[in-house]
Design brief:
single chain, about 80 residues, mainly alpha, 3 helices
Length: about 80
Amino acid sequence: MKPKFHETQAKTKHVEDRGGFVSNLPDKGLKTHLSSEPDIKEATVDSQTDVLLVASDGIWKVMTNEEAMEATMILIWLI
């Protein structure tokens, strides 16, 4: 069932009020450039591992790897 227009507007406002953004792809032709397949990488996680950062593609649209790690490390030090 499709959400009601006012519910969608409220969710969009909720996200945008917190600094996020909402986008959509109304043109089906553009969707051929997208994939629902995740990028998967193997890594050894052991006692030498400081941080394992897992994020959706949304974070990489607004931050570089370095910026994401810097923000993560700042949050770790604040906790």
